[in-house]
Amino acid sequence: MMVDAKDTAVLLFSYGTLQDKAVQIANFGRELAGRDDAIPGYSQSMVAIDDPAVVATSGKTHHPIVQPSPDPNDAVAGMVFEITAQELAAADAYEVSDYKRIAVTLKSGVQAWVYVRA
């Protein structure tokens, strides 16, 4: 699905459950098409999810989370998706309190939103 011309396209980088088809359909009403990319200067760990709705949607009690790494050579692989502002709001509602959304420059050079450790 192409983003409607009247809707400004937003780039969202996902390294975790937002790459799952079931999570995408539950939050956006559609499967997203993305491309491989990475977030440089970050490392990944896992966080316990306490929100029962999020666990029900993802089927997982622990989700990956990223934080800045002291090693500039670190990078976390994932996918970058083109979504609408309305879909970004849906992603904000899905991400739990452990996460905050920030803008980053990906390895490809594009700028995208990503959820990192709060």
Automatic annotation (TrEMBL):
Residue ranges occupied by any Gamma-glutamylcyclotransferase AIG2-like domain in the UniProt entry: 12-117
Pfam families: GGACT
InterPro entries, alphabetized: AIG2-like_dom (IPR009288), GGCT-like (IPR013024), GGCT-like_sf (IPR036568)
Protein name as annotated: Gamma-glutamylcyclotransferase AIG2-like domain-containing protein
